[in-house]
Amino acid sequence: MAPVRNPYTGEIIASVPTVGATAIGSVLQQARRGRRTAAALSRASRASVLEHTSRLVEQRAESFARLIVSEAGKTITQARKEVARAVNTLSLSAAEARRNAGEVVPFDSYEGSENRQGWFTREPLGVIAAITPFNDPLNLVAHKLGPAIAGGNSVILKPSALTPLSALRLVDTLVEAGLPEEVVTVVNGDADIAAAIVSAPDVRMVSFTGGFATGEAIARTAGLKKLAMDLGGNAPVIVMDDADLDEAVRSCVSGAFWAAGQNCIGTQRILIAHQVYDRFRDAFVARTKLLRVGDPLDEGTDIGPMITRQAALAIQAKVDAAVEQGAILLCGNEVTRSVYAPAVLEGVPTTSSIWQEEAFAPVVVLQPVESFEDAVEQANAIDYSLHAGIFTARLDRALTAARLLEAGGVMINDSSDYRFDAMPFGGFKYGSMGREGVRFAFEEMTQPKVVCINNIGGV
C-alpha cells in the first residue's frame, strides 16, 4: 500500500494498493479482455457512458473539487474550475464518439477509378497506456480516458503516485455510468511496472503527460508503437508598448501563479517593451504581493501549497542560484512548510536554469526588450515550447507574432495560460509528439480503415 498525503497538512489521507513489474501479465490480460469489450460497444453506447459520467461528475462537483484540494493542494476555487473542465472534456468526448466516424473517399475523382466508391472509418488502436501527472489529477485523466473510450479502446491508466484518488474516483464513476470494468485497468506502482506497460507489444499507444526525462525514457523503452507526449514548456509572453498594461498585468499574474505555478503553460518569461518596462514591473510586483498564500480550502486563498515541501525547497534553491548569478529578486522566494511565496525576478542571466528550464513553480522572470523582433527572438530561444502570448493593440503585429512564435498555441491579448478543452494542445520543437484536445486526441487514438467498392458492371 502507498500512502497519499495532503500537500498542505502533510497528513495521510488515503492509501492505495500498488503492484510491481511481476503483475504485468495480469494487467495485460485484463487490458486484452477490455480491448475486445470496448471494440464491441456501439458508438451510441460509448457516448451514453461518457454523457452519463459527465452528468454524474457535475452533480458531485463539490466532492470532486474537495478531493482535488486534499490530494493536489489546488485552491478550492481552482479545483472547482478543474472539475467544470472535466465535465466539458467528458461531454466533448461523448460528442466525438458519435461524430467522428470517418469520411467518404471520392475515388471517382481520379481517372481510372470512375467505377469505384468507398469510405474510411476510424477504428480503435486497441490497448492504450495513459500516464498522467499530479497537477490536474482529474481533467488530465479525463483528457486521456474520454477520447480513448470514445474511440473504442481499452486503457491501462497509471496516475501519478502523488494524486491517484481523483483518477480512481473518475474510473469508478465511469463504471457506475455503465462502462464495463475491464475497459479501464488502473495501475498504481513504481517505475518498473510503468516500464513493463510501456514496452508491452500489446500496448499500441502511450499517451504521457509529464517531464522530459521520463518522456525520453518512455521513447527509449516503447518500441514500435504510437507515442503522444506533453512534456512541459517555459512559456514566454510579450508585452508591447501599445498594450493595455492593466489587463496585461492582471492576466500575467494569473497566468504565472495559477495552481501555484505547477502548470505546463504557466507564464514564466515576460518580455516587456523597454518603454513601459518600469510601469509594468512595478504594477506586476504590487499585484503579486497582494496574493494570499496558504490553506487551499480557504475561499480567499490565491496560492496553495506546492505538491511537496521538497518541490518548494528545490525551486527556492534554483532561485537562490539565479540571484547568486546576478538576478534581482523583487519579491517572494520564501517557503513555509510546502507553501512557496510567488517569486518575481529581473536581470536573470540567460544561462540560468530559471531562464532555460521549466520552473513548474510560482516563479516569473521579467525582461525588457528593445524591439518586437528582439522579443520574438528571445521567446523562441528555448528548445521546447507549448504556449506563448502577446499583448498588443496592433493587429498586424499580433498576426506576425502568431506566425513567428514557435509554439503550439499563441494567445493574443492573453497570457500563455489559456486552454479550451476542444482545441488542439501540444508542443513545438523538441519533444513534440501528437496533440491533445478531445477531437485531436480521438484521432490520435484511432486509425483509418479504407473500404473501396469496385462496381465492375459500372451501373
CATH fold call of the largest domain: Aldehyde Dehydrogenase, Chain A, domain 1
The Rg value, from CA coordinates, equals: 23 Å
Report the CATH architecture of the largest domain.
3-Layer(aba) Sandwich
Question: Per DSSP, what share of the residues sits in E-state strands of 2 or more residues?
Answer: 15-25%
Give a quick account of the main beta sheet: strands, pairing sense, barrel closure: 7 strands, mixed
Q: Class of the largest domain in CATH?
A: Alpha Beta
GO molecular function: lactaldehyde dehydrogenase (NAD+) activity
Pfam families: Aldedh
Domain Aldehyde dehydrogenase: 3-451
Organism: Lentzea alba
Attribute tags:
single chain; 459 residues; alpha/beta; Aldehyde Dehydrogenase, Chain A, domain 1; Aldehyde Dehydrogenase, Chain A, domain 2; 2 domains; seven-stranded mixed β-sheet; five-stranded parallel β-sheet; 15 helices; Aldehyde_DH_dom; Ald_DH_C; lactaldehyde dehydrogenase (NAD+) activity; Aldehyde dehydrogenase family protein; Ald_DH/histidinol_DH
Fold blueprint:
Layout: E1 2-5, E2 12-16, H1 24-40, H2 43-59, H3 61-72, H4 76-99, E3 102-105, E4 116-124, E5 127-131, H5 139-150, E6 154-158, H6 165-176, E7 184-186, H7 191-199, E8 203-209, H8 212-222, E9 226-230, E10 235-239, H9 245-257, E11 267-273, H10 277-289, H11 309-324, E12 328-331, E13 335-336, E14 339-340, E15 343-346, H12 353-356, E16 363-369, H13 372-379, E17 384-385, E18 387-391, H14 395-404, E19 409-412, E20 428-429, H15 438-444, E21 446-454
Parallel strand pairs: 5-6, 5-8, 6-7, 8-9, 10-11, 10-18, 11-16, 15-16, 18-19
Antiparallel strand pairs: 1-2, 3-4, 4-21, 12-15, 13-14, 17-20
Helix pairs in contact: 2-4, 2-6, 3-4, 4-5, 5-15, 9-10
Family: Belongs to the aldehyde dehydrogenase family.
InterPro entries: Ald_DH/histidinol_DH, Ald_DH_C, Ald_DH_N, Aldehyde_DH_dom, ALDH-related_metabolic_enz
Domain Aldehyde dehydrogenase: 3-451
